[in-house]
Amino acid sequence: MRLALDSSGFLGEVSISFWIPTAVLTAALVIKLPSIIKMWRDPMLRAVGGLLLFACAVFVFAAPRTIAWTNRVAGVPNISAPLVYSLLTALCASWLLLIIAWRNGRSDRSAQTRRVTRWVVSIYAGVVAALWVLFALADVPEERLRDLDTYYANTPFMREEILLYLVAHTVACSITARLIWNWIRTDGLDAWLRWGLGLLGVGYATNLFFDAAKLTAVVARWTGHDLDWLSTNVAPAGACVSATLVAVGFIVPHVGQYLHERWHVRLRHRGLGPLYQLTRTVTGEREPFAPHAPAELRLIRRETFIRDALLQLSRHLDEDLRGRSYEAALALGFEPGRARALAAAVTLLDAAGGSRPPRTDGAGSPSGPDTTYLLQEIQAVSQALRHPDDITAVRARATAPAESVPAHE
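Structure (tokenized):
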């Protein structure tokens, strides 16, 4: 954004890129589009789709070049005014519909919810119809690309049209911002959702600056003063900032959750490293390597490789050693979950030849070794392998001669 001061000290002409918020809004729409198409019956997703679509349309058709093109194609001076006002009014309705869907939940289909939805649609559809009627009655022959609101602020019917769309916009912004901030204060929200709602709340609140600047400039015209710079410079800047915040607010929960899941998958893959190296040494094989495979697929392949190798080792597991190691870990002060992982690590190293040659006489019990824990808790066992000192201490205590251990232990 480029701001310049004129010689009188007031804000001069402002060059604002309407395409920046348009690009961000389009990105948000593209990200949400697959979910919207897949779950079209979900009222919340429909409201999100409508909101982003109308927001994009508002900025596209509110750009001065698009305004001039629309007027030229239609052959009617300032015909773009009711078009932009109508798109903005539809955007306001989509804000309220989204809040209704969010507040009442995805599964809510109560008569009250349907009634409120119909009221919102009916009222804002009526506002759109009134905007076109008022424009048809108004006399606005001179094309204005940037200052139409203030230039025609005293023109009969156009005056009422300008006031109508601003009031409708202000009401929708106020209600939406208030409900979002109330929602943010509730417990149990996902951190990414809370951040997204915070950006949405700030975005809708910033929209009120747009309304305040526009209304102040219009009222100044009614009283014979000139504060047009508020309408032509400050208000569009506020609208661009607001739209960008709203778009980012929709993007953050989706992208944030996506990145969080990818990072969690990578951490799990890395966490299995020690156990993978152990099983790789035993089997003499490697997991399938695909550098361009998705992180989820690489994790599944590593988990599968490890479990297959553990099944091969299962006939060499010493269940008696695992039991003694578990008791030893508890005696050393480890909590039960950690103790089980350390005991499993000691047993695996024993079976793999880490402390002695692998057993070849079968399982330690007639029914065979219990591999349930090993196969289910490979992450915990792998983490235990990262602490060789703890494993050494547990093994030493578990394999100590019985007479060297006090009877009460």
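Residues 228-271 form the longest helix (44 residues). The mean pLDDT is 82.
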